[in-house]
Amino acid sequence: MAWITLLNSEITIRHKVRNAAGDAYVSGESANIVTGLLDPDGDASALVVTITEIGVTGLYNIKFTPDEDGIWLLTATNPAGTDEAVYEYDVIAGSVAATALSTDAYCAESDVVAIAQYTDDFTASTTPTESQLFNFMARRAAILYSDIRAVLGSAAPGPDNYNVKFTGSTDAEVALERVLIHFNAIGAAIDTLEAAGAGESPGRSERIAELYTMWSDRDDELRMAAKMYQTSSTTSATHISVGEITKSSVSSREEDGLMFTGTTTW
Question: Residues 214-236: what's their mean pLDDT?
Fold first, then answer.
């Protein structure tokens, strides 16, 4: 599984070098570690890769800064040792920095307020602030984007501020977008309630626990919605009603307000 990271942000990989027996770390090998870096097109990248040992520990920081979004692969080989590793990173174009915007998220501020059952207006002086809320929303959106990218690859639609986004209004697009909005709001609501102080209210603590369960159980719904989105882009024979996602011809269940019925393979 690829680690998700941001475009034009330095990646630091902690790499270890052990001896041939594999029972001790080897120091002083920075110049002997051979790296290979493949860009999202599968071509050898000319980007600078730096290798620096951490003290004299036999542990090394390997760093590079990706300059385009997509899947990057870095290999590290130690000729005198036993450790060869492949590191995979999914680089996305969205922003989750301190200047994150509401357009870096699938959901809106009002969606988070509704899920969190939070009544206060967010301003520059509240806890959390509105700026912090946007960061929560953007960070959870990046996780969700990584989730669906595992199914859809580079065609995965992101929030409005991403390079690829929802541009149509088919049933499958609406279904996937609504699932993403729902879980984006759940994740950001968790962060919001925790920042506001869960211990201040037993009811708030219980709500956080409920939301954590929903967030942890997101995989099946996201994968099903993504697969139907993918199917609808290659055939016109599939029809999905808004709020209805196909799962299995022998099952029908309702979860978090969505009904799953019908047939599909994934």
Answer: 85
